[in-house]
Design goal:
133 residues; four-stranded antiparallel beta sheet; 3 helices; 4 strands
Length: 133
């Protein structure tokens, strides 16, 4: 009587382990690609949040009712960290829409380039209540 596994059993076991490892490695590669894209998006989102926080607390919002303007790299209207603006493709559009006497909606739209070179647009909307302006 022989002890141990046959050659066919070893080949089948190695094939099953290989298929399991292949699926694990492919999921890991997909997650790494998504991580790069999400990092770019979060950088732009932080920049947009900085713009929103600077504009929502000022009386400037009241004067910009139903108007819009562009923020470009190196613009003096708003302080932006250069780490944020490096991702921007050159412009960020801010528009204000007054819905009634108490509420104004600020829309920030930013065009940016991802690490892979793809062009994307991120949009953020925020509400400014009357106690701010």
């Amino acid at each position: 009587m022989k002890k141990g596994f046959s050659f066919i059993q070893l080949v089948v076991a190695i094939a099953v382990i290989g298929m399991a490892l292949t699926s694990i490695f492919s999921m890991n590669l997909q997650n790494n690609r998504r991580l790069k894209v999400n990092r770019d998006y979060l950088t732009v989102l932080m920049c947009m949040e900085e713009v929103y926080s600077q504009l929502k607390n000022t009386r400037y919002a009241l004067t910009m009712s139903d108007k819009s303007f562009e923020i470009k790299k190196g613009d003096k209207k708003i302080f932006l960290n250069s780490d944020f603006t490096d991702k921007l493709k050159g412009k960020m559009t801010v528009s204000f829409d007054k819905t009634d006497s108490n509420i104004m909606v600020m829309k920030i739209e930013a065009d940016y380039t991802t690490t892979s070179g793809a062009d994307n647009t991120a949009v953020m909307r925020g509400v400014i209540w009357s106690d701010y302006y």
